[in-house]
Amino acid sequence: MGVFSRAKLHEFSVYFIVVIILLGMTRKEVHCQSMTTSDQTAKEGDAEVVITCDYSQVTTTPKEIQWDELDENGEIINAGFVNKIKKEIKRFRLNITPGKADLVMSQPMRNDSNRTFECEIQTRDGYIKRSNPSIITVYYLTLPLLSASVSDIYEGQSVTFTCSKPDGDPVPHITWYKDGQTVNTNNPRYEIANNSTESVLKIKSATKEDDGDYTCKAESDQFKGDDAKTSEGKQLIVYCM
Known about the structure:
Blueprint lengths: L1 H31 L7 E4 L4 E7 L7 E9 L5 E8 L4 E2 L2 E6 L2 E7 L9 E8 L4 E3 L3 E8 L3 E4 L3 E3 L4 E6 L3 E2 L3 E6 L2 E2 L7 E5 L3 E6 L8 E8 L9 E2 L3 E6 L2
Parallel strand pairs: 1-10, 12-21
Antiparallel strand pairs: 2-7, 3-4, 3-8, 5-6, 6-7, 8-9, 8-10, 10-14, 11-13, 13-18, 15-16, 15-19, 17-18, 19-20, 19-21
């Protein structure tokens, strides 16, 4: 009887040790399972920008899901501003699908650039897991302003158009147009000078060919084609002598 009891005790001890080891491995495995987000870019004027938090590698069911905002030092400054209970606040909302928790920001603005967020979940076994930080970059471009020294001149006179370089990220460049066509910079009567704040088009000794509507367009790597910004037009009338 004593031998049998010792055998059973040994068997139970081995079983108990194995269970403890397995539990430890399971908890370690859960603890090491990853959550990932990525940096996102948007343009001012976009309808929304979405940061996806992928927690599909965390096999235990989350008890809580939330997004936090961080400062430049990585410290939490706005904990759980959206979560499973409070899914929407101002321009932010939380969209939860299996294995993912999207932070949706509507109408991103230039002041949102460099804001940093992280996703946080609490598992049902008590673990709190946080994703890597995700930084939002919001590109923007304002409208260039065009002015002219005169609106009508006689042939042989000169006129100067000045286009203020708009605020933008990335920094834009300016292209000149006449009647919707690119100004011919090879024309010796045309002189274009650029600096950090403005672009100046000077027409020396104007002819009737210079009569028309002038505009300047601001473009950058992020704002091209239909996304570029074009100034209001300035009409030039050239009278014959």
